[in-house]
Amino acid sequence: MPETTLIVPPEAAGKRIDAWLADTVGTLSRSRVKVLIEEGRLRRDGTLVTAPAEQTRAGATYTLDVPDPTPARPLPQAIPFDILYEDKDLIVLDKPAGLVVHPAPGNLDGTLVNALLAHCGPGFTGIGAEKRPGIVHRLDKDTSGVMVVAKTQLANDVLTAAFAARDLDRASQALVWGLPATATGEIEGDIGRDKRDRKRMAVVGHGGKYALTRYRTLKAWGTSVALLECRLATGRTHQIRVHLAHAGHPVVGDPVYLRRIPAAAKGIAQPTRGLLLDFPRQALHAARLGFKHPRTGEMLSFETPIPPDMQAILDALGRNG
After folding, report:
1. Is 89 part of the annotated catalytic residue set?
2. What are phi and psi of 188, to 5 degrees?
3. CA dist 268 to 18, 23, 247, 252, 276, Å?
4. Measured between alpha carbons, how far is 272 from 206 in angstroms, rounded to an integer?
5. Does the domain spanning 82-165 belong to CATH 3.30.2350.10?
6. What is the C-alpha to C-alpha distance for residues 287 and 138, in angstroms, rounded to an integer?
7. pTM value?
8. Which of the following CATH numbers is that of domain 171-289+302-320: 3.40.50.1100, 3.30.2350.10, 2.60.120.700, 3.20.20.140?
């Protein structure tokens, strides 16, 4: 049932769109329809609908995109991944860019969870959430870097609490357009769904969740490009990317929050400018993660170098920036 198109009859005008769709389709609950609308999957006469409470209009054509159901449980798949540390309680790994962490619409398999199920065996299935076993935090698909995964329920509970309380050492490196006005600073702003595009997050005036990102400048190339270290005081979806874009310093290559060629690009000579503008993903790397071992209390710390694709840009900036 990938897509359903319905035309509103005159007698149905004025009803809530989520309720009318649920009643008319017959196989979807109203709450499910509401979620689909909030995910940006409903259009009226080609125009995106974002409000589940919108009133139906007689003669209007509504098209609802309904993704195929995901399997009840992810299946094991032999997918290699780089392990930095492993014991009976946890795995620390270096996630490559392009690897999705857990199954979701659009990525039903081929994820890190599928790889972990194959690596850890049947006992891993019951750790934490059924569809996200062992996942106590996650990185965006195209963000690289250090992740920790729980292999026991003890580790799952302790690490989940540590991430919720920010009781850990966590730093990311982001290559951004422009140079922040101060070498160190904070970016503060509530984050919620972008009302114009439900697939994006944004700094919002109301209805969002408090968010705070701290940064320091590691290196700069004039006022055109800078490499920042970012630390999260809160943990919101796409937080670093949203806050940096809001501050006028979007992450290089960001396919969601970088919407136009930045003026700062004029300060970079070719061919380096082309490398920056054509970078195919957000230039964001989770460089460091430190936490207390959930069983022993020992402090563990892991760092991974910037991956080769980002390093190639840094090398080019050093030569030609």
Report:
1. no
2. -125, 140
3. 49, 57, 21, 13, 9
4. 40
5. yes
6. 14
7. 0.78
8. 3.30.2350.10
Helix 30-38 and helix 17-25, axial crossing angle in degrees, nearest 10: 120
pLDDT block averages, 10 residues each, the chain of length 321 = 84 92 88 87 90 92 82 83 96 96 81 94 80 91 97 95 94 98 96 86 91 98 97 94 97 94 92 95 98 97 97 91 52
Give the chain's largest Cα–Cα span.
Answer: 69
8 A C-beta contact, residue 228 and residue 213: no
Which tokens go with 204? 């919002």
Given 140, 142, 194, 254, which residue is catalytic? 140
In 3D space, the residue among 78, 66, 65 whose CA is nearest the CA of residue 109 turns out to be 78
At 176-218, the pLDDT tens digits run: 999 999 999 999 999 998 888 878 999 998 888 999 999 999 9
